[in-house]
């Protein structure tokens, strides 16, 4: 079952693009910014929602505050992963791109024409997919990025969605590269990229969380192409 909210509200921009939760959604345009129309009490009551709906509905088992923190942590993890994959592209190691969410446009919000309504049509699995290009193998890469805020905290594996697990499991079975990227800490930030097969072994041994002890051998040195570890032979090196 999808963990996405049933309805999203997207603000119009003059450029014809809309920004939701840090993600740019290209829509047809350009659109003209309109003065905010005061929603009538009748219209708001009939819809039963506020025109400024929260960007993410709480996942089962989490309070709204916990879900908000999860969303914030996810953004940190994805920002660092983007930087890591930029390095991989520059070094000619791999071409890995963020997978956009599938969003269906449901038209303008009747209470506020500056907003669009949309629904996620399906879950997309892991955040990043691509290919190894530095060895000519073209092996697939599936990577999921997470952030642990506490400097000495642990990442609880139950936080992974089932569709994300399924894709990482498939990557291992098919001989592709499956990686869990964990950005650890805030005051002293470190990045680890643990192979999904290693995570599977930890879970089989009864582990429910991954801490610094388990991540010690998977540290990504600053400024390095972390996927170079998976190249079978280097071309032009």
What features would you highlight for this structure?
disordered N terminus, 237 residues, 12 strands, 5-stranded mixed sheet, alpha+beta
* Helical stretch tally: 5
Specify Rg, calculated over alpha carbons: 20 Å
Provide the succession of SSEs: EEEHHEEEEEEHEEHEH
Task: Indicate the mean pLDDT.
Answer: 74
Helical residue percent band: 25-40%
Shape: globular
Let me know the number of strands. 12
Summary?
With 237 residues, the protein is α+β, with helices and mostly antiparallel strands.
Tell me what the structure shows.
The protein is of the alpha+beta class and 237 residues long. Helix content is 25%, strand content 29%. It has five helices and twelve strands. The protein has helices at 41-47, 64-90, 162-174, 196-204, 212-215, and strands at residues 8-11, 17-20, 23-26, 94-98, 102-109, 112-122, 128-132, 140-148, 155-156, 177-184, 190-195, 209-210. The chain has a five-stranded mixed sheet. A hairpin with a 7-residue loop joins strand 7 (128-132) and strand 8. The radius of gyration is 20 Å and the shape is globular. It starts with 7 loop residues before the first strand and ends in a 22-residue tail after the last helix.
């Amino acid at each position: 079952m999808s963990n996405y909210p049933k309805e999203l509200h997207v603000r119009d921009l003059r450029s014809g693009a809309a920004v939701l939760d840090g993600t740019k959604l290209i829509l047809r345009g350009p659109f003209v910014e309109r003065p905010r129309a005061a929603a009538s009490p009748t219209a708001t009551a009939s819809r039963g929602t506020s025109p400024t709906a929260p960007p993410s509905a709480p996942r089962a088992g989490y309070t709204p505050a916990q879900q908000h923190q999860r969303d914030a942590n996810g953004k940190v993890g994805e920002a660092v992963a983007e930087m890591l994959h930029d390095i991989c592209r520059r070094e000619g190691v791999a071409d890995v791109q963020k997978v956009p969410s599938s969003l269906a446009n449901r038209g303008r919000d009747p209470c506020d024409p500056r907003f669009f309504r949309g629904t996620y049509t399906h879950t997309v699995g892991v955040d990043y997919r691509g290919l190894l290009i530095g060895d000519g193998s073209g092996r697939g890469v599936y990577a999921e990025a997470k952030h642990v805020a506490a400097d000495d905290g642990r990442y609880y594996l139950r936080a992974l969605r089932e569709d994300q697990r399924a894709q990482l499991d498939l990557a291992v079975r098919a001989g592709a590269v499956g990686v869990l990227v964990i950005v650890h800490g805030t005051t002293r930030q470190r990045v680890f990229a643990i192979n999904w097969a290693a995570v599977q072994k930890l879970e089989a041994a009864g582990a429910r969380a991954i801490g610094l002890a388990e991540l010690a051998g998977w540290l990504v040195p600053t400024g390095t192409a972390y996927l170079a570890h998976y190249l079978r032979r280097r071309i032009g090196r």
